[in-house]
Amino acid sequence: MVLSVSAPELLLRADSLDVRYGASRALFDVSLDIPVGQVVALLGPNGAGKSTFARALSGLVPLTSGSIQFNGRDISKMPAHRRQNAGLTYIPEGRGIFPGLSVIDNLKMAARRAGSHSERDAAVERAITLFPILGSRSRQQAGSLSGGEQQMLSLGRALAVEPKLLIADEMSLGLAPIVVETVFQSLEQVRDAGISVLLIEQFVHRALGLASQCVILSRGRVGWSGPAADAGAEVLDRYLGEATSAAASG
Ligand code: ATP
Question: Could you read off the pLDDT of 114-124 as tens digits, one per residue?
Fold first, then answer.
Protein backbone atom coordinates (compact mmCIF):
# COMPACT_ATOMS: atom_id res chain seq x y z
CA MET A 1 0.00 0.00 0.00
CA VAL A 2 1.30 3.48 -0.87
CA LEU A 3 0.56 6.06 1.83
CA SER A 4 0.18 9.62 0.64
CA VAL A 5 1.75 12.24 2.95
CA SER A 6 -1.36 14.36 2.49
CA ALA A 7 -3.50 11.53 3.89
CA PRO A 8 -4.60 12.52 7.40
CA GLU A 9 -3.35 9.31 8.94
CA LEU A 10 0.35 10.04 8.27
CA LEU A 11 1.83 13.02 10.12
CA LEU A 12 5.51 12.64 9.26
CA ARG A 13 7.49 10.79 6.66
CA ALA A 14 11.29 10.81 6.83
CA ASP A 15 12.65 9.44 3.58
CA SER A 16 16.22 8.14 3.23
CA LEU A 17 17.88 10.58 5.65
CA ASP A 18 21.66 10.88 5.58
CA VAL A 19 23.45 13.04 8.17
CA ARG A 20 27.16 13.74 8.59
CA TYR A 21 29.16 15.38 11.36
CA GLY A 22 32.14 16.67 9.36
CA ALA A 23 33.78 13.65 7.78
CA SER A 24 31.94 11.09 9.88
CA ARG A 25 28.56 9.81 8.76
CA ALA A 26 25.98 9.31 11.53
CA LEU A 27 22.84 8.32 9.56
CA PHE A 28 22.64 6.16 6.45
CA ASP A 29 19.43 6.09 4.42
CA VAL A 30 17.08 6.16 7.43
CA SER A 31 13.34 6.18 6.66
CA LEU A 32 10.53 6.33 9.20
CA ASP A 33 6.80 7.16 9.20
CA ILE A 34 4.84 8.59 12.12
CA PRO A 35 1.05 8.21 11.95
CA VAL A 36 -1.28 10.81 13.48
CA GLY A 37 -1.96 10.22 17.18
CA GLN A 38 0.35 7.24 17.51
CA VAL A 39 3.61 6.55 19.31
CA VAL A 40 6.62 5.30 17.34
CA ALA A 41 9.44 3.86 19.46
CA LEU A 42 12.94 4.64 18.16
CA LEU A 43 15.34 2.20 19.78
CA GLY A 44 19.01 1.31 19.44
CA PRO A 45 22.21 0.96 21.42
CA ASN A 46 24.39 3.93 22.45
CA GLY A 47 25.75 5.78 19.45
CA ALA A 48 23.27 4.21 17.00
CA GLY A 49 22.10 7.64 15.83
CA LYS A 50 18.77 8.10 17.69
CA SER A 51 19.46 11.65 18.92
CA THR A 52 20.96 12.56 15.55
CA PHE A 53 17.72 11.44 13.89
CA ALA A 54 15.70 13.52 16.40
CA ARG A 55 17.91 16.55 15.74
CA ALA A 56 17.57 16.06 11.97
CA LEU A 57 13.75 16.03 12.25
CA SER A 58 13.88 19.16 14.42
CA GLY A 59 16.21 21.05 12.08
CA LEU A 60 19.11 21.18 14.52
CA VAL A 61 21.44 19.31 12.17
CA PRO A 62 21.22 19.62 8.37
CA LEU A 63 20.45 16.67 6.10
CA THR A 64 23.18 15.57 3.72
CA SER A 65 20.43 13.97 1.64
CA GLY A 66 16.87 12.73 2.02
CA SER A 67 13.63 14.55 2.76
CA ILE A 68 11.14 15.13 5.57
CA GLN A 69 7.42 15.63 4.99
CA PHE A 70 5.46 16.94 7.99
CA ASN A 71 1.72 17.53 8.02
CA GLY A 72 1.66 17.61 4.23
CA ARG A 73 4.65 19.98 3.77
CA ASP A 74 8.28 19.44 2.87
CA ILE A 75 10.22 20.73 5.89
CA SER A 76 13.63 19.34 4.87
CA LYS A 77 15.21 22.79 4.70
CA MET A 78 12.97 24.66 7.12
CA PRO A 79 14.77 26.34 10.07
CA ALA A 80 14.26 24.77 13.51
CA HIS A 81 12.05 27.57 14.92
CA ARG A 82 9.66 27.34 11.96
CA ARG A 83 9.37 23.57 12.41
CA GLN A 84 8.48 24.26 16.03
CA ASN A 85 5.85 26.79 14.99
CA ALA A 86 4.48 24.19 12.58
CA GLY A 87 3.86 21.83 15.52
CA LEU A 88 7.02 19.74 15.77
CA THR A 89 8.36 19.88 19.33
CA TYR A 90 11.59 18.30 20.51
CA ILE A 91 12.32 17.62 24.18
CA PRO A 92 16.06 16.99 24.09
CA GLU A 93 17.93 14.68 26.42
CA GLY A 94 18.51 16.83 29.53
CA ARG A 95 14.98 18.28 29.64
CA GLY A 96 15.33 21.72 28.05
CA ILE A 97 14.01 23.72 31.01
CA PHE A 98 15.40 26.89 32.63
CA PRO A 99 16.48 25.73 36.11
CA GLY A 100 16.96 29.28 37.48
CA LEU A 101 13.40 30.37 36.61
CA SER A 102 10.20 29.52 38.45
CA VAL A 103 7.85 26.85 37.13
CA ILE A 104 5.31 29.47 36.01
CA ASP A 105 7.97 31.53 34.21
CA ASN A 106 9.19 28.39 32.43
CA LEU A 107 5.64 27.78 31.22
CA LYS A 108 5.13 31.43 30.24
CA MET A 109 8.33 31.39 28.21
CA ALA A 110 7.21 28.27 26.39
CA ALA A 111 3.79 29.83 25.76
CA ARG A 112 5.09 33.13 24.39
CA ARG A 113 4.74 31.87 20.82
CA ALA A 114 1.07 31.11 21.43
CA GLY A 115 -0.04 34.57 20.22
CA SER A 116 -2.18 37.07 22.13
CA HIS A 117 -2.03 37.58 25.88
CA SER A 118 -5.17 35.52 26.47
CA GLU A 119 -3.91 32.73 24.19
CA ARG A 120 -0.70 32.63 26.23
CA ASP A 121 -2.64 32.40 29.49
CA ALA A 122 -4.72 29.60 27.97
CA ALA A 123 -1.54 27.77 26.93
CA VAL A 124 -0.15 27.94 30.48
CA GLU A 125 -3.50 26.83 31.85
CA ARG A 126 -3.54 23.86 29.46
CA ALA A 127 -0.17 22.64 30.75
CA ILE A 128 -1.32 22.99 34.37
CA THR A 129 -4.59 21.16 33.69
CA LEU A 130 -2.63 18.25 32.22
CA PHE A 131 -0.07 18.26 35.06
CA PRO A 132 -1.67 19.80 38.18
CA ILE A 133 1.61 19.45 40.13
CA LEU A 134 2.92 22.35 38.01
CA GLY A 135 0.15 24.57 39.36
CA SER A 136 0.87 23.73 42.98
CA ARG A 137 4.61 24.32 42.43
CA SER A 138 4.22 27.37 40.21
CA ARG A 139 6.47 29.71 42.28
CA GLN A 140 9.18 27.09 42.91
CA GLN A 141 12.48 27.35 41.07
CA ALA A 142 12.47 24.74 38.31
CA GLY A 143 15.97 23.50 39.24
CA SER A 144 14.76 22.56 42.73
CA LEU A 145 11.97 20.27 41.46
CA SER A 146 12.49 16.53 41.68
CA GLY A 147 13.66 14.74 38.52
CA GLY A 148 10.15 13.52 37.75
CA GLU A 149 8.62 16.96 38.34
CA GLN A 150 11.22 18.49 36.03
CA GLN A 151 10.11 16.05 33.34
CA MET A 152 6.47 17.04 33.95
CA LEU A 153 7.59 20.63 33.43
CA SER A 154 9.41 19.84 30.19
CA LEU A 155 6.30 18.02 28.95
CA GLY A 156 4.11 20.88 30.17
CA ARG A 157 6.30 23.36 28.27
CA ALA A 158 6.15 21.22 25.15
CA LEU A 159 2.36 20.87 25.33
CA ALA A 160 1.69 24.55 26.04
CA VAL A 161 1.94 25.24 22.32
CA GLU A 162 -0.28 22.32 21.22
CA PRO A 163 2.25 20.35 19.18
CA LYS A 164 1.25 17.83 16.54
CA LEU A 165 4.39 15.79 17.15
CA LEU A 166 6.40 15.42 20.33
CA ILE A 167 9.91 14.00 20.08
CA ALA A 168 10.86 12.72 23.53
CA ASP A 169 14.56 11.88 23.80
CA GLU A 170 15.36 9.62 26.78
CA MET A 171 13.00 11.38 29.19
CA SER A 172 13.43 8.62 31.77
CA LEU A 173 17.23 8.86 31.88
CA GLY A 174 18.51 8.93 35.47
CA LEU A 175 15.05 8.77 37.07
CA ALA A 176 13.99 6.39 39.85
CA PRO A 177 11.71 3.55 38.63
CA ILE A 178 8.60 4.98 40.29
CA VAL A 179 9.22 8.34 38.60
CA VAL A 180 9.79 6.60 35.27
CA GLU A 181 6.29 5.18 35.69
CA THR A 182 4.90 8.73 36.09
CA VAL A 183 6.73 9.89 32.97
CA PHE A 184 5.26 7.02 30.94
CA GLN A 185 1.78 7.74 32.28
CA SER A 186 2.22 11.36 31.17
CA LEU A 187 3.31 10.25 27.71
CA GLU A 188 0.24 8.03 27.54
CA GLN A 189 -1.90 11.11 28.31
CA VAL A 190 -0.10 12.96 25.53
CA ARG A 191 -0.85 10.18 23.06
CA ASP A 192 -4.46 9.93 24.22
CA ALA A 193 -4.81 13.67 23.58
CA GLY A 194 -4.17 12.86 19.89
CA ILE A 195 -0.55 14.05 19.75
CA SER A 196 1.93 11.84 17.89
CA VAL A 197 5.08 10.88 19.78
CA LEU A 198 8.51 9.75 18.61
CA LEU A 199 9.76 7.98 21.71
CA ILE A 200 13.50 7.43 22.20
CA GLU A 201 13.86 5.24 25.26
CA GLN A 202 16.16 2.97 27.20
CA PHE A 203 13.15 1.34 28.93
CA VAL A 204 12.54 -0.79 25.88
CA HIS A 205 9.58 -2.87 27.00
CA ARG A 206 7.79 0.09 28.51
CA ALA A 207 8.30 2.02 25.26
CA LEU A 208 7.00 -0.88 23.18
CA GLY A 209 3.91 -1.05 25.41
CA LEU A 210 3.05 2.52 24.45
CA ALA A 211 4.07 2.40 20.80
CA SER A 212 2.22 1.07 17.78
CA GLN A 213 5.33 0.99 15.56
CA CYS A 214 9.00 0.44 16.32
CA VAL A 215 12.19 1.31 14.47
CA ILE A 216 15.55 -0.01 15.68
CA LEU A 217 18.69 1.81 14.60
CA SER A 218 22.00 0.02 14.38
CA ARG A 219 25.17 1.97 13.56
CA GLY A 220 23.23 4.72 11.83
CA ARG A 221 21.02 2.38 9.77
CA VAL A 222 17.54 0.95 10.23
CA GLY A 223 18.23 -2.56 11.50
CA TRP A 224 14.60 -3.53 12.04
CA SER A 225 11.20 -1.87 11.75
CA GLY A 226 7.65 -3.09 12.17
CA PRO A 227 4.66 -3.16 14.50
CA ALA A 228 5.77 -2.75 18.14
CA ALA A 229 3.96 -5.98 19.02
CA ASP A 230 6.24 -7.85 16.61
CA ALA A 231 9.48 -6.65 18.26
CA GLY A 232 9.98 -9.91 20.14
CA ALA A 233 12.82 -11.18 22.29
CA GLU A 234 14.85 -12.43 19.33
CA VAL A 235 14.77 -9.05 17.57
CA LEU A 236 15.54 -7.11 20.76
CA ASP A 237 18.36 -9.45 21.71
CA ARG A 238 19.89 -9.22 18.27
CA TYR A 239 19.88 -5.42 18.04
CA LEU A 240 19.90 -4.25 21.65
CA GLY A 241 21.55 -7.05 23.61
CA GLU A 242 22.41 -5.59 27.00
CA ALA A 243 19.84 -2.83 26.60
CA THR A 244 17.05 -5.33 27.12
CA SER A 245 18.47 -6.65 30.37
CA ALA A 246 16.42 -6.38 33.58
CA ALA A 247 17.41 -2.72 34.09
CA ALA A 248 15.78 -1.68 30.86
CA SER A 249 12.81 -3.98 30.88
CA GLY A 250 10.50 -1.86 33.07
P1 ATP B 1 22.92 7.56 22.92
O2 ATP B 1 21.89 6.52 23.18
O3 ATP B 1 24.26 7.23 23.52
O4 ATP B 1 22.45 8.97 23.22
P5 ATP B 1 22.36 7.86 20.06
O6 ATP B 1 21.79 6.62 19.47
O7 ATP B 1 21.43 8.96 20.40
O8 ATP B 1 23.25 7.48 21.33
P9 ATP B 1 23.86 9.83 18.58
O10 ATP B 1 24.06 10.70 19.78
O11 ATP B 1 22.91 10.28 17.55
O12 ATP B 1 23.47 8.35 19.04
O13 ATP B 1 25.28 9.58 17.91
C14 ATP B 1 25.42 8.90 16.67
C15 ATP B 1 26.89 9.01 16.22
O16 ATP B 1 27.19 10.36 15.87
C17 ATP B 1 27.88 8.61 17.30
O18 ATP B 1 28.95 7.94 16.69
C19 ATP B 1 28.32 9.93 17.88
O20 ATP B 1 29.63 9.86 18.41
C21 ATP B 1 28.26 10.84 16.67
N22 ATP B 1 27.96 12.24 17.03
C23 ATP B 1 26.86 12.68 17.72
N24 ATP B 1 26.87 14.01 17.86
C25 ATP B 1 28.01 14.45 17.26
C26 ATP B 1 28.61 15.73 17.05
N27 ATP B 1 28.02 16.85 17.49
N28 ATP B 1 29.79 15.77 16.38
C29 ATP B 1 30.38 14.65 15.90
N30 ATP B 1 29.87 13.41 16.04
C31 ATP B 1 28.70 13.30 16.72
Answer: 677 888 888 88
